[in-house]
Amino acid sequence: MTNPTNLSGGAKSASGASASVLSYFRWAFIITILGLALGAWLGWQTTGTAGGTATIFFICCVLAVLEISLSFDNAIVNANKLKTMTPKWQRRFLTWGIIIAVFGMRIVFPLMIVVIAAKIGPWQALVMAASQPDEYARIMHDAHLPIAAFGGTFLMMVGLSFFFDHEKEVHWVRWLESHMARYASIRGVEVAVVLLMILGFSQLHDGAAAQVFVNSAIWGLLTFLLVEVLGGLLDRVQQDTLSTAAKGGIGAFLYLEVLDASFSFDGVIGAFALTQNLFVIAIGLGIGAMYVRSMTIMLVEKGTLSEYRFLEHGAFYAITALAVVMYVQTLFHIPEVITGLAGALLIGIALWSSIRWNRRHGHTHGAE
């Protein structure tokens, strides 16, 4: 584990007490104030009325809460991967990574969807977002099927890869997880499960929609496999190059970026149910992304994943559930609030189970 000052820059006190929870969210609070102020200014500029300004301000707040609720599991998975990375790559992910997450996925990604779907240039897409928000939202909505199929497949592979692990010894839902761990020795079992799900859901679509679903889902599967292979190759090269063999460098960074993108699909598309203004969406979801970063740092530095043994399990159950929801959303709409609450509920139950286990076995907070 890296030194606590490596991530947030805040040293621990001489007594060894860990930093307070609020200190981890200092930058998130600052960005929240700046973002909401920018949202209020944008509301005044676009509507010119106090009511319109208040509406835009409220939408920014709701989008931030939506992003946070959808990203509890994202923060836990990030923390689980970060603890295996070198301090240098941890810092890079928490600086470059958050820039890519906020500006890349919350601004560039929606623009590129419109660029590809409407076959126009990036500047024309940006102009459309500003001057024709209804048309922009329509194009984004029409692109929901391939995005949900791609992102759902990638997240399904992430979730199943955690459970289909023959080295996994800690089980939360023992009757299920023990069997999955036992069958993990069968090569490609999680891929087979995902392919069966793809074939099953494709039967529920008609004609061209079924073909789009299958093609997009296969690309999601290939992307996961390619990221795994490329990450392993890059990390092996890094280990061979460095005098001190480092685990979890550029390969892990790449994995986390693609993972964050997959988590963002649902939030970005769902945001258009509240507003068609790309800039309001970027502000609201960007604020939420900062809280994900803060939660990630706190989980790594405070060792929360090791203190609550089932918390990680809850996150991967939430990821798997989100993947299924994204598949189902290709058939009919499921409110994003329900999606976020379901993930938070699974993580909350896992946390409660972890606390009960600690009490039953005499583990105290902070003990390994």
From TrEMBL:
It comes from the Bacteria. The keyword Glycoprotein does not apply. The chain crosses the membrane at residues 21-44, 50-72, 93-118, 143-164, 184-204, 216-234, 246-265, 271-293, 314-332, 338-355. The keyword Membrane applies. It holds the Pfam family DUF475. Keywords: Membrane, Transmembrane, Transmembrane helix. NCBIfam families: PRK14013.1-3, PRK14013.2-2, PRK14013.2-6. This is DUF475 domain-containing protein.
